[in-house]
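CHAIN AND CONFORMATION:

***
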Amino acid sequence: MEAWNSTPRPDLGGHSPDQMPSPPPAKARAEPPRNAPCPCGSGQKYKRCCLAKTPN
């Protein structure tokens, strides 16, 4: 398995799997402030629109 991971492969642009960078970690979405406009676009405040819909 080590030989496979260190062999350059054409489907990886000539790189070996060991040389490929790992993908960046996914960023957690920050919850908007309670009095900010709701990100759903309803025009209401977040606390009156989608705050109750978000899972804890």
